[in-house]
Amino acid sequence: MATVNTGLLILGLNIVVISILLSLYGLATGDSGLVGIAASLGLAGGVIVAYSRTPQDPTTASLLNYSKTLVNAVTSTIEDLDLLESSICIVKKGAAFLLAYSKTPCPAQVDPGIGFAGGSPYLAIPIEIPSPVPAEALGTSTAAGEPVERVLRSLLVEELAVCRGVKVDVAGESYSIYITGLAESLRDFTRYPVDPYTLLVLSTLSHTTSASCIRLVQRTYVPEGLVLVVKVEKQ
Amino acid sequence: MRSRVGLFILVYALMTVLSTVSLYLLKEQRVDVYISLNILSYYISYAVIRPGPSTNIVKVLNITLFALFIVVVAFRVYEVLA
Asked: Angle A16-B60-B12 (CA atoms, 0-180°, nearest 5)?
């Protein structure tokens, strides 16, 4: 659900009320010009009310600050642990979700922080997504990836406004996610080992698919946006 | 960070005020002229500023305003032809 800008909403509603009063006065005095002004004002009020329900830039600003902090911390830790070529995955541990960097794909025994699993070091960060909506709650669909696509679009486009479009293709356990129209402020993060798009997509998928492990197989930056290939391992 | 939505609303409001005041000072009495110029102001501001991603409510608004504009233009064309 998109956040509401209360200030804009009140402004728009006030303009609509004024336009109604003005049109009544225009009709009473028989001044069509005044009715025209009222109609124009009413439209402007309607537009402002509609835009009060669109995601505002402060949402992106908060995500930008969070991403900067996360990238700085994680990048230096990953370099120290020699995990720059590692695989990224989301591991479900009880009710918690851990973002794990490890050379072992989907390590089974991970705890939050730094540790060893399968003879290789790992970095695991507990994560929480803003609106965990299971795909099952969104109804059934003929296309396999449509519920997941709907959840991702609702979060990335409508709630956080970090991209313009999301498309999901499913082939077995593999999900290809095409994210287009990346936000200018977050585009640069796609060059780093951790970026908000990958993080949000992986964590959302882990919620919607109820998988025990979600692994990022490929991350490609294209001129239109970002393509993520993700493997879901349900065990 | 400046809000693009805020900038869009500012430009749209300025264009609306300018067009509406000009029409009233020119003693324009047709209501549909005010509406169509307002819709044009909206689309010009939208095309220039691009206020963020198209959410469902913005898509509905765009379609509604476009349909309204088409109705106004169709009515004028019909009036000329009739």
From this structure: 50
